[in-house]
Amino acid sequence: MKNSEIIGLTTEELTAKLSEEKTTLTKLKFAHAVSAIENPSRITKVRKEIARLNTEITKRKAASASN
């Protein structure tokens, strides 16, 4: 998901997507601990996606606090 797509989402959609991505990351970590997963770089991609979502949520909270 690109930043332009993230900006287009509502705050509720962002929090839902964030919880979904966190669940995905947890599942990937467990799968990787049990046996090597096919594409371990996917863990990094999910972590970056979580960071992007958190950044946008923080921006929106700061914008609403300053208004």
Automatic annotation (TrEMBL):
GO terms for cellular component: ribonucleoprotein complex; ribosome. GO terms for biological process: translation. InterPro entries: Ribosomal_uL29, Ribosomal_uL29_sf. The keyword Ribosomal protein applies. The keyword Nucleus does not apply. GO terms for molecular function: structural constituent of ribosome. Gene3D superfamilies: 1.10.287.310. Keywords: Ribonucleoprotein, Ribosomal protein. HAMAP family: Ribosomal_uL29. Belongs to the universal ribosomal protein uL29 family. This is Large ribosomal subunit protein uL29.
